[in-house]
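Example 351.
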Amino acid sequence: MTHLCIKTSRPYPVHIEPGALRHLAEVEEAQVADRFWIITDQTVSALHLETLIKHVTTLFPKTNWMTSTVVPGESSKSLETYADLLHEGIERGVSRRTVILAFGGGMIGDLAGFVAATILRGIPFIQIPTTLLAHDSSVGGKVGLNLSLGKNLVGAFYQPSAVLYDVSFLKTLPDREWRSGFFELLKHGLLAAEPFADQLMDLKLSDMKQLPLESWIAKGISVKQRIVEQDEQEQGIRAFLNYGHTFGHAVEYASERLAHGEAVGIGLVFAKMLEGQVVEANQLAQLLTRLGVELPKRQSFEVYFDYMKRDKKNNQSIRFVLAENGKFNLEEIPVGRLLSAYDMTVRCLKW
Ligand code: NAD
Ligand code: ZN
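Predicted structure in complex with zinc ion:
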């Protein structure tokens, strides 16, 4: 059982435990809501919507509720789905006292959060994450959409009223989604340089579901918490959360089948190579294999380089988050050094 309070411009609680949904009763915005608007995807709806509705109707028997269900997957984090949700919400009578329940993984959190941030100039929302990766996305208040030109190019900083993380929802996650969340967790561990990261590095896939998930998730969230509390709007150190993401995003864009966190795992190997930490890069590569990550078809350096240039965090030069003597920095890296890190990454991953 873990409870945190994220002290951003609008502080909010994070409850991580089986049965975390009961804390909905304590959320002020929920207490005065005229209705709950559950936004979810078809997979989560089929597996867990009944449980959520049971909680909502037991805790708030007099409050109306409605559900919107979108197609699962990144393609729903789009202007089209966003516009459909706005129309549906307005047609069905959403008011400024309606509370959105973003029920799903990071895709739903980002999409429903952006609807909440913008419909009627902003209504409250509560994150109810159902994936391991969402330990990252549900905290920190970044919400938004993808454009065909790239990921997360439209968005806002908009904090939820609460995060209710019922870890029992995670039991139905496919292995690929476990891995995806795991590498994001590992990123948080590496950023904090905690023994927690060493424990994660030793893991086998079969261990993964047995482990003390709540405390892991809480550790991951606390790392993110420390950073976003100091830099809510990404003026500085919040960019460190992109560790492993510059090359990771390029790999993700260039291959359709890889989950986000799996691509970040590959990106972390690349970052370690840039840092000259060859031993750690090799350990990470072994971990990727041990956890069963299937490497995508490898593209040439030029293809990845083009994607990295297009990534929104890189205007002219390519900047990387890198660690030096345990301290993180944002560094501009010349192409030659990127190319040699790429060659070393390919060799180390036998890619
Ligand atoms: P996701 O929401 O697409 O979920 C992954 C898949 O798992 C989907 O097919 C979904 O239907 C399924 N799923 C969800 N919960 C399930 C459950 N309990 N059992 C079985 N299946 C389940 O994606 P994700 O991996 O959770 O998150 C990725 C998204 O998060 C990306 O859009 C990324 O940009 C975003 N993100 C945002 C932030 C942020 O700060 N806002 C940070 C990291 C990632
Ligand atoms: Zn990520």
